[in-house]
Design goal:
Layout (H helix, E strand, L loop, with lengths): L1 H7 L2 H16 L2 H24 L5 H27 L2 E2 L2 H20 L2 H4 L3 H25 L10 H30 L10 E3 L5 E3 L7 H28 L10 E2 H17 L1 H22 L7 H11 L1
Antiparallel strand pairs: 1-4, 2-3
Helix pairs in contact: 2-10, 3-4, 3-5, 4-5, 5-7, 7-8, 7-9, 8-9
Length: 311
């Protein structure tokens, strides 16, 4: 009851907290809008080229539009989640997710950076391991530090869940690549890189370039590396400074409000000391004035103030 009365008695503070929550979320909107505009222009450009260039097939245009739609969906997921579940997602998570989505869907799939940039695919898979490890760690850390605290996990189990979740996402993605290659004849697992077509129409395989197995296993290895980096940092951080992650992971609005109010109350606690010191100075001045008032002399502080005014 006391807690509810305190929250009701501080509507202005709660309003400040909510404004701070929304302000932090708006900091990434500029990047979000820029990437969405570039993605939309890319989709429009691909559609225009379909009608202008006769050699451009419908399958390429459909694929480009599909990739742009996928990027736009990812760009709006953090905003939808933040508004629907009333939570705060740190800027570095949203920015990394935006850049990763743009690098994959637009630069990688449409502008073929996967084929033309050295180790581009492996860099993104490593980054993907980092991103999903951070997201999964943020969620389980949030639940583990909720106010009800029905379940309290040790740092080891939090890191274990983070690792398993990230590996599951990578495994599902490899299944998606396999399905796209088999259903639509794509080359997401680079199985076509080792094929050479002969003049009679037959194909010769080159084992040095691998089939799909080499690409998939390499992707999973670099994904594990990125995930392990996050897991090691998270484990050491939880062991040495358990609350270090409080402002660096996903927070519910209630947790965000509690942190802000605690910080504000800590600032207020420091005020009485200053007020007490000012009161002591005022009492000293009044005592000096009472002692010297009859003789018409001024106190040292009054003389200092008069000198400052004359100057």
């Amino acid at each position: 009851m006391a807690k509810l009365e305190e929250e009701r008695a501080l509507p202005e503070e709660e309003e400040e907290v909510l404004l701070a929550l929304r302000k932090k979320g708006r900091r990434t909107l500029i990047l979000n809008y820029i990437l969405q505009a570039v993605t939309l222009l890319t989709a429009i450009g691909s559609l225009v080229l379909f009608f202008v260039d006769d050699s451009r097939g419908l399958d390429i245009t459909v694929n480009h539009i599909f990739q742009c739609v996928g990027a736009l969906v990812v760009f709006n997921v953090p905003r939808i989640v933040s508004k629907k579940f009333r939570c705060y997602i740190p800027n570095f998570i949203t920015i990394t997710l935006y850049v990763f989505a743009f690098a994959h869907f637009v630069l990688g799939e449409i502008y073929r950076a996967y084929d033309n940039v050295f180790l581009y695919d492996k860099i993104l898979h490593t980054t993907g391991g980092v991103i999903f490890a951070i997201l999964s760690f943020s969620v389980v850390w949030l639940l583990n530090n909720s106010e009800d605290k029905k379940v309290k996990l040790s740092p080891f189990f939090i890191v274990l869940f983070t690792f398993c979740f990230t590996m599951t996402v990578e495994y599902v993605w490899e299944l998606v690549e396999f399905g796209m290659d088999r259903l639509f004849g794509m080359n997401m697992q680079r199985w076509q890189d080792g094929l050479t077509q002969l003049p009679d129409g037959s194909y010769v395989t080159n084992p040095s370039y691998g089939s799909g197995l080499k690409d998939s296993m390499t992707d999973m290895i670099v994904n594990v590396i990125g995930c392990l980096i996050v897991c090691v940092i998270a484990y050491i951080g939880m062991k040495r400074k358990p609350m270090w992650f409080e402002n660096k992971v996903i927070l519910t609005e209630k947790q965000f409000r509690r942190i802000k109010l605690e910080n504000k109350h800590e600032d207020i606690v420091d005020l009485p000391e200053d007020c007490e010191a000012a009161q002591i100075i005022a009492e000293e001045e009044s005592a000096e004035a009472a002692a010297l008032g009859e003789s018409g002399e001024s106190t040292p502080r009054q003389s200092e103030k008069s000198e400052e005014k004359s100057e």
